[in-house]
Amino acid sequence: MSDAARIDTVQIGTGQIGTGQIGTAPPANAGIAPAPVPDAASLMQALPAAMACIANADHLPLEGGEDPAFGSVRWRTLFSADRTPTADFVLGVAEFGPAGTLAAHRHDPAEFYFGLSGSGIVTIDGIPHAIGPGIALFVPAGAEHATLAGGDGLRFLYGFARDRFSDVVYRFSAPPEAG
Asked: Domain Cupin type-2, which positions (predicted)?
């Protein structure tokens, strides 16, 4: 019989593995011990770490806004490896009410902002930049930056080249001393 007519046989659940010819079963004493059937946890670990997925910002909870040390900004995390089957990329939506703020801070990964609605000023290393719908800003790694929303509030997309949002360590600058 030609090689094209041979098949590999695998019987899921019994662990029986072998080769035979089409229409024949492997010998009963093939000498192969049954393989254990993996449990659900083992199967989940075998899945790829990152998979195609979607996130709907309207269905995700708002976080933040409670600590005056970093400002009034709130955010929705769209992609983060501790919440979604993603890797190498964090994506979220920042939301500010009128005159809302994100205090001056730094972090090691570079970041981008892409304006969705409203208006505001993002100050990067002392230089103010307008942000609004359709405007993209690049914040270099380690650059000090802060945001002040306009009177109509502000929403922008932000992203980091990290697996998880928790991998981004924010270092807030000391507030200016009253003089």
From this structure: 93-152
